[in-house]
Amino acid sequence: xxxLVLTIGEILAEIIAENQGDGFLEPIPLTGPYxxxxxxxxxxxxxxxxxxAAMIGCVGDDDFGIVNLDRLRRDGVDVSGIAVxxxxxxxxxFVRYRPDGSRKFVYNIKHSxxxxxxxxxxxxxxxxxxxxxHVMGTALFSPSLIETALSAxxxxxxxxxxxxxDPNLRPEMxxxxxxxxxxxxxxxxxxxxxxxxxxxxxxxxGKDEPAAIAELLDGGLAAxxxxxxxxxxxxxxxxxxIDQPAFRVEEIDPTGAGDCFGATFVxxxxxxxxxxxxxxxxxxxxxxxxxxxxxxxxxxxxxxxxAFISRADTEKAx
Length: 318
What we know:
Number of domains: 1
CATH topology: UDP-N-acetylmuramoyl-L-alanine:D-glutamate ligase
CATH architecture: 3-Layer(aba) Sandwich
Strand content: 15-25%
Mean pLDDT: 91
Radius of gyration: 19 Å
Number of strands: 13
Largest sheet: 9 strands, mixed
Low-confidence stretches: none
Strand order of the largest sheet: 5-4-1-8-9-10-11-12-13
């Protein structure tokens, strides 16, 4: 029986500058709005991969909310747990890439409809059907979201479900009220942990990589997937380490690549695929995500990933 994966968090519209530069201090051409928000990208990719998927969140009663709900519905996400706030606008982010590849943002998330995300009656109904909860650190920007996520973790674990945790947060976020305690609780409850790069050492300070991995696994995790961007990814459990090189593609827009990677790996993990195959699918998903402008535009079906991996294998054999 297929397992329902649920995520909770911010939903926003993204508007992207068409040319590179530093910020928004003069009129410039823009493109968008694109549906966005790390949990929304994650759950859209999970649905497109064929995993039953649902989300709890909140959008405004506006065009940006419609853009997001339409995309998630179209791609197979159960949006019954996403509330529509009649007063606050849907979150948004204006993004401009600098020549070095870094980004400058102007955004409103905390004081948008996303900041009012709570467990409504519809949300509780979705949560009651969830087999797996995916928690993302980006969702910890408001006390109500922290409370909602902690309650959802408790509900899912009590019912015998599983939890994955992608910290996806900057070190300074841990100084915000309630965030450090919430992160510790998420990590304690998680079965699968998906940090990116140096995030691994936020939870095992002063350690080298092997020691950090060992300490985290001893804490009760079933597995760790360490995302390294263009350097690939590694899987760890108590018996083995598996390394996956990155697929080489032309990068157009990196936003959302890590979310797509995580969604695909979690989906494979829930479907019982071998870690080697799960890593390959996840790496392909992350690679395809960067080839299109817009954070959710590069999500992929399983058939598309199979075709991409087959082409990559053929090119490697030449």
